Amino acid sequence: MPEPLPEPKGLPEPLPEPAVADLRLETVLGALSDPLRLLIVRKLLLESEEFDHTCGWFGLDRPKSSLTHHFRALREAGITRQRQYGLERRSHVRVADLNARFPGLLNLVAAWTPPEAD
């Protein structure tokens, strides 16, 4: 798994998220049980071009309301951190926090191979 990009200076405050001590394995695994959310996290881990990304960067052909739901589920589970930049939200994986609580979990996500599309 590649190293996460360093946090740039002057970022907006993150949206509400659980503290590291409050991250629960069953909540994280529940959020990752959805194949689309698993794909989002894997793409962030392996293909990030910047520190954080808008939902449009993922190239997902889903309604905006559906994507909003999935990104909120990831944030509320403590997997991603989101920040508001004007009208858009950008996300990145909380790598250090998740590695501290659940060593090896993100390596499994990164090693996961998505099924071929039919």
From TrEMBL:
InterPro entries per record: HTH_ArsR_DNA-bd_dom, WH-like_DNA-bd_sf, WH_DNA-bd_sf
GO molecular-function terms, A-Z: DNA-binding transcription factor activity
Highest rank taxon of the organism: Bacteria
Regions crossing the membrane: none
UniProt domain HTH arsR-type: residue ranges: 27-107
Protein name: ArsR family transcriptional regulator
